[in-house]
Amino acid sequence: xxxxxxxxxxxxxxxxxxxxxxxxxxxxxxxxxxxxxxxxxxxxxxxxxxxxxxxxxxxxxxxxxxxxxxxxxxxxxxxxxxxxxx
Length: 86
What we know:
single chain, alpha+beta, two-stranded antiparallel sheet
């Protein structure tokens, strides 16, 4: 539900932060396509000046942990040197 800050799978819920929700939205919107890291960063943060290079990786790891906790293991895949894909 994009209106809430939760994702639900098989009756289990995980709470997402605003940016985690935006990342998942972007990946769903582009499902089946590789989403380059820079495109995701541009979508999340208008001014990249304040974004550290590791910020997206940390957020993806947190999303993966939350998805794994509700039974969605390996939902977001990393394409080495390319980006992320659902």
